[in-house]
Amino acid sequence: MRQLSGAGVYVHFPWCLAKCPYCDFVSYARERAAIDHAAYADAVLRELDERASSVEGRRIDTIFFGGGTPSLWEPRELGRVVRGIRERLGCAGAGDLEVTVECNPTSLDADRARALVDQGVNRVSIGVQSLRDERLKYLGRLHDANGGRAAVRDALSAVPRVSADLIFGLPGQSAQQARDEALELVDLGLSHVSCYQLTIEPGTRFGELAKRGRLPLAEDATVADAFLAIDEALGARGFRHYEVSNYAQPGEEARHNLGYWRGDEYLGLGCAAVGFVRTGGTGGVGGVGGERGEGAVEGVRYRNEVLPEKYVARGLGSSPGPESGAPTREPLDGPTLMRERIMLGLRVDAGVDLDEASAALGTPGWTAERTRTAEKLVARGRVVREGGRLRVPRAAWLWTDDTATRLF
C-alpha cells in the first residue's frame, strides 16, 4: 500500500468545569476530582486499537486534544494516549509531529504546562476569549482578564508553540476595542491567534435567550468593522491572515486545522469524537470501497457515543441502537467530498484548486453549473479564479459561507 501523508488524530475530552452559554460542543460540567482520568484513557486506547487499521499506511502528522477542556485531564493519562498513538500508528518523527492540547486559563499554569510538555505536547491553544472582565462575565467564563494573561505567559515559558482564542462581536464592543484586545493578546508574545465572531447557536443558553429576545447582541455593521480592524492591525504586526478566523506568524500555522481545510483524513477518538477516513480508490483503507472503479474516492464520517459513561463502558461503541447519542456512520461519495472540499478550502487564503480536487476525488470539479456560478461570483467580486483555483478575496471573507454554498 502506498504511503499517504496528511492524516491527523483528534481526541475528544468531554468535560469542563462549567458549560459556557455560547458553546454547542459536546461537553459536560464536572469537577476534576470527579473524573475517572485513567478509565477514560483506557477507553480511548481501546478504541484506538479497533480503529487503527482504518489509517494503515497513513503518516500521522498531527494529534489534537479538543473538548471540553483537555487541560483538565491528568497529564500522565493524556500522555498515555499520546504514546499509544505513537506506538500503534505510523506517526511523523518527534520533531515533526504536532501535538496540540486545548486549554482554559482555569486549568493551566506553569506547572501544568511543563507537565504537558513532558508528555509529548508541543503546542497549546488557550481559550482566553477576552482581556476585559466585563466581557468575560457576559461570556460566562470562569477566569478573569488577569487569569487569561497569566495563562498565556505561563504557557509561553514552557511550551514551544502557543496559540490563544479571542471572541469579538460582543454587545457594546466597538471595532477599535476589538482591535485593541487582539493587539494586546498577540503582544504577550504569541505567534498564533484565532479570532472568532460570536455566533449564537441553537440549543445553547445564548440560543434560548436570543430566541426569547433577551440577549443583547452587537450590530452586524459593527461586527464587520471589527473583523476588518483586527485584520489590518494583526497584518501590521506581521501576522498572516491565513484562514477566515486564524492569524499566524510565518510557519506557525495550525497544521492540524490546515488538514481539515485541505480535506485530509482524521481519526476521531473519544466520546462524541468525529472522524473521517477514505474507503475507496487507489488509496482505499481497511479493504473497503473501490466499487466505483480505479481512482474513485469514497469515505466514511463517523461519530462516537456522546455520553461519557456509555463510551467508557463499551469503548468503540459501534453497536447500533435507537437511543439518542448512538454512534453513527455516514457514507460520503465523491460529489459530497467535492462539496466539502470547496466549503472548507475557500476558508483559507489560498483557496481551493478544483482541478487538483477532481484528480484526487475522481469526480468532476468544474461542472457546467458550478462554472456558471463561479463566473457570476467573479463578476460580483466574491471570488477570484486563477486557472483551476478559486479563492475568496480578503474584502469578501465575511461572506465565505454563503459563497461556498452557492458553489455546491
Average pLDDT metric:
91
List low-pLDDT spans: 282-295, 317-324
The helix content, as a percent range, equals 25-40%
Radius of gyration: 21 Å
Secondary-structure-derived class: alpha/beta
CATH class of the largest domain: Alpha Beta
- How many distinct domains? 2
What gross morphology would you assign?
Answer: globular
For CATH, the homologous superfamily of the largest domain is named as: Aldolase class I
Account of the protein in words:
With 408 residues, the protein is α/β, with parallel strands linked by helices. The chain has two domains: 255 residues, TIM Barrel (Alpha-Beta Barrel); 75 residues, Arc Repressor Mutant, subunit A (Orthogonal Bundle). Helix content is 36%, strand content 21%. The chain has 14 helices and 17 strands. A nine-stranded mixed sheet has the order 9-10-8-7-6-5-4-1-11, with helices on both faces. A three-stranded antiparallel sheet has the order 12-13-14. Strand 9 and strand 10 form a beta hairpin. Helix 1 packs across helix 10. The longest helix has 17 residues. It is globular. About 5% of the residues have low confidence.
